[in-house]
């Protein structure tokens, strides 16, 4: 029987950072590139990290914006506890155990909403609703950026992504057992969608300045701004 995404990450929580670093090619590069295109005068005061996990992106947010109020949100209580323990000295982080497909924040609340490798866990209709909700809770001129896994535009490209991913993950030190675990997780909890779909939905819900900032195999960084 399939376990829920929440149970999967609860079980993985203390091993997550070690395993993901051996699974995602150029993982650290994602956190570097997420901050390269922000306007020079962008000084977000309130930031939301969607699907924070153990806090690998949260750490990069803290590095760039140490004085911001940072909201770290995740559906998994155990992985969120790992994040809380990691940042126990940082009093500017507020934690939310919440499902991001039903976000509950006031309008015009955040300057910056960011996410890494999490949005593919919800279905396409929920992704679109999430983008509408993100637009609502961002302040005018606020920025939304996410890094995530995407599908190829054709099945052939997608299967080549998966084959290349396996080669890279094994080179990074994933064992065949780790790989099988990620593939079972993918079958159970992943909804990969071509990057062009994301760009179209962001435009349709009302974002502007939408672009792909970086791409490697199936991982992309997408940027969008509220007018
Ligand atoms: C692959 S991890 C990414 C964690 C972190 N952002 C990183 O880059 O290492 C995906 C995270 O998204 C969370 N997640 C999955 N579905 C979610 C949902 N519907 N609402 C909130 N969090 C969710 C999982 O619990 C997990 O911590």
Automatic annotation (TrEMBL):
UniProt GO molecular function: methyltransferase activity
Classification lineage: Bacteria, Pseudomonadati, Bacteroidota, Sphingobacteriia, Sphingobacteriales
Keywords: Methyltransferase, Transferase
Domain Methyltransferase: 47-142
CDD domains: AdoMet_MTases
Protein name stated in the entry: Class I SAM-dependent methyltransferase
Organism: Pedobacter cryophilus
One Pfam family this sequence matches: Methyltransf_25
Gene Ontology BP terms: methylation
Xref: InterPro entries: Methyltransf_25 (IPR041698), SAM-dependent_MTases_sf (IPR029063)
